[in-house]
Amino acid sequence: MIKILFIRHAESEYSRDGIYAGKVDCNLTSSGLESAKKFGKTLDNSFDAIYCSPLKRAKQTLNAIFPEAHPIYDERISATSIGIWENQKKSSLDKHLIELFRKGLYNPPGAETHADVDKRVCSFVKDLFEQYQNNEKILVITHNGILRSVERNFIKSEQKLISDTLRTIILDNSNYDWYKSKEEAIK
Q: Is CATH 3.40.50.1240 the classification given to domain 3-186?
């Protein structure tokens, strides 16, 4: 049985300041770096493969957790594009539209839809379950929107919409089997 550990990056400058980042390549805060280092001390570092978003905040988180890691960078686990909301203070935006966006019922102009994100995330997860089949442990450093997509598609009951920094989700074969049974039922 393989296990995939998804971890959201540590606190970024944008999250600290209440700004939507999306695809903007911002840095971690010093507090975020320290939190990631402490978090890394709690993890067993015997991963068979490590995947990371190519954005700086994910790379910096991985480097703080496992400085010697040699990850595979994959664009499919990069942050969700939020169009014209990138670089915008959350407090300056309509709270109702933000809620609708989180639920997949509204997209700011130029933003990815939930379906867009789900397509790339499901492709990534399927590839992992097809490539690794011998009790491997996989680490994935990624973003909030990617964790939401993993929850929507691979976890039986949807959890909260907002993910804390360094939040983790673990998938195993049972999650993938459930996902495949859903896909078969749709066909």
A: yes
